[in-house]
Amino acid sequence: MDILIERAGGVLTIALNRPDKKNAITAAMYQEMADAFFEAEKDAAVRAVLIRGNGGSFSAGNDLEDFLKAPASSPDAPVFQFLRRISSAQKPVVAAVAGAAVGVGTTMLLHCDLVYAASTAKFSLPFVQLGLCPEAASSLLLPRVSGYQRAAEKLLLGEAFDVNEALSMGFVNRVLDADKVDAFAFEQARKLAALPASSLRVTKALMKHADVRDIAARMEEEAGYFSPMLNAPEAREAFQAFFEKRKPDFSRFD
Ligand code: COA
């Protein structure tokens, strides 16, 4: 099972459980996560959602084999269902991040309410390095959260950065020891679960309200570029290079 769902203390935990592939996310995993968010919204016993990764990584992002063999194109594709659900979740969403948080492993954090990260966490947004462009409305949210130049450095160069930088960029709440981050994040989610659900719902809605339409529109705009770019030769070269364990060569493309 590549996704494990657990319910305890009013918290629904979604654990990415594909440690041999650093929790890279396949279409089937996106679908399970999208369904878990749907169930969480319907079930009054669920008062908060926690996302974490098993095996010392949060997520190596989208599965590159899926990108190569079955790139998502329709708006109903599991990845888009998941992104719509997490970005419009009415209940609080907490993340516990350790190790790699690549691509969507970082951009999904911009939709979480509380993000706790281990000192081992390493973030990256290598969309340009892969011949792609940002997704999950990160082209809108990262400049808003971190300021334009810092967002531009991360989104244009795509280089990995550590947890202290993520903290100073404003999308991580607190840094913890790697062996404490999951328990701490669960405890925070449990605290939320004990608070009045209606007050949480209204407070979150008030904070997000002005951005909701912008986020949905930007995700659609990004997808309009991202989907064709997945099939373009630059991206094909980048994916092949990853699996052949070599540096990509973009010199033949204009
Ligand atoms: N899709 C598919 N497989 C992936 C993957 C991904 N996104 N990320 C890692 N894997 C696989 C590797 O191919 C490897 O498989 P193998 O053992 O069968 O060879 C295994 O997971 C372990 O990865 P490895 O690269 O050996 O681990 P590492 O600790 O040296 O590096 C990462 C970890 C996450 C930095 C590195 O794997 C990486 O850069 N992955 C690609 C991330 C990416 O570009 N994601 C898409 C973003 S849009």
Chemical compounds bound to the protein: coenzyme A
Instruction: Quote the CATH topology of the domain at 3-179.
Output: 2-enoyl-CoA Hydratase, Chain A, domain 1
Q: What's the CATH H-level homologous superfamily of the domain at 3-179?
A: 2-enoyl-CoA Hydratase, Chain A, domain 1
The level-1 CATH class of the domain at 3-179: Alpha Beta
Class based on secondary structure composition and strand pairing:
alpha/beta
Q: Find the count of extended strands (DSSP E, 2+ residues).
A: 9
N-to-C SSE series?
EEHEHHEEHEEHHEHEHHHH
Work out the strand percent: 15-25%
Low-confidence residue ranges: none
Describe this structure in words.
Its EC number is 4.2.1.17. This is Enoyl-CoA hydratase. InterPro entries: ClpP/crotonase-like_dom_sf, ECH/Chromodomain_protein, Enoyl-CoA_hydra/iso, Enoyl-CoA_hydra_C. It is found in: Peroxisome. It is an enzyme of class 4 (lyase). With 254 residues, the protein is an alpha/beta fold. It has a domain at 3-179: 2-enoyl-CoA Hydratase, Chain A, domain 1 (Alpha-Beta Complex), CATH 3.90.226. The chain has 11 helices and 9 strands. The protein has helices at residues 27-42, 64-69, 78-87, 104-107, 138-146, 148-157, 163-169, 181-193, 197-208, 212-230, 233-243; strands at residues 3-8, 11-16, 48-53, 93-97, 100-102, 114-118, 122-124, 161-162, 174-176. The strands form 2 sheets. The chain has a 6-stranded mixed beta sheet with strand order 1-2-3-4-6-9, with helices on both faces. Helix 5 packs across helix 6. The longest helix has 19 residues, at 212-230. It is globular, with a radius of gyration of 17 Å. The model has no long low-confidence stretch (mean pLDDT 97).
